[in-house]
Amino acid sequence: MILEIKNYIKISNSIDEILKNSPFKLKYIIEKSGISEPTFFRKMKEKKFLPEELLKIAEIIEPEESFLKSLEEAENDFKNGVYYSHDEVMKISEERFLKKYGNKVV
Q1: What global pTM score does this model have?
Q2: Each residue's pLDDT tens digit, 3-28
Q3: Which of 56, 88, 96, 101 could make an S-S bridge to 84, C-beta 3.0–4.6 Å?
């Protein structure tokens, strides 16, 4: 656990350099992060991003890693029997639709 915390501190302290070396423009990263521009620059200057915000930024600037991690998690879920059948997904989707739109034709 100590190693993970040290890595988090290292990333947090060097986020400005990480973003500078990113292949993406800062404006794109800010837009995709959902953090307002003034808040983003303040957090970057003060090095005070929340862990969830750093995760979101990492997913933006390293989409391949994020995608591979998602696939790995999905594979593990499937192996552990954590999935829904087609019928279950359709039922859940129908319930969400009816909750949102009622019986209206959309």
Answers
A1: 0.67
A2: 999 999 999 999 999 999 999 999 99
A3: 88
- Number of other residues whose CB lies within 10 A of the CB of residue 35: 20
Residues 6+ apart with CB under 8 A from 47: 12, 13, 15, 16
What distance in Å separates the CA atoms of residue 72 and residue 31, rounded to the nearest whole number?
27
Distance (Å, whole) CA 47 – CA 101: 43
Tokens encoding 20: 């500078």
DSSP string, 25-92: -HHHHHHHHT--HHHHHHHHHHT---HHHHHHHHHHH-HHHHHHHHHHHHHHHHHTT----HHHHHHH
CA–CA separation, 29 vs 93, rounded Å? 31
CA distance 29 to 59: 10
